Amino acid sequence: MENDLRAALIAWLRADPALAAINAIEEESPLSVSPPWLGIAASASIDWGTKTRTGRETRIALELETVTDLTAADAPLLAAIERRVLALPPFQLGFELASIRFLRSRSEARVDNRRAALIEFRFRILEQN
Question: 47 FRET partner, CA 20 to 30 A, in 29, 68, 94, 101?
Fold first, then answer.
């Protein structure tokens, strides 16, 4: 289910016109794309099932890398990413979303005016019957 969630999330993010300024939205950090890009930095799952349905609690961290020397320049793009993730439709191929919750974020300055922001979410999902 975790892989199905990752694929659905990437497809959902790619389909958002508000994120068109991002050069690449990939399941992993893209190797040869100039910023801005968005990728899944990490994901992990634990059991979150019921007596009758298999389920997972999956945490996914998304990384946005941009080039700017302004600390707040990424704020509108980060807000658009968060809104889009939280709006992921509950019924997906192979699983059903029970809940999505923003957990935490952090930002850092990198060399050559690059900035990175990490946004982590918790997804509770159940296998479709």
Answer: 29
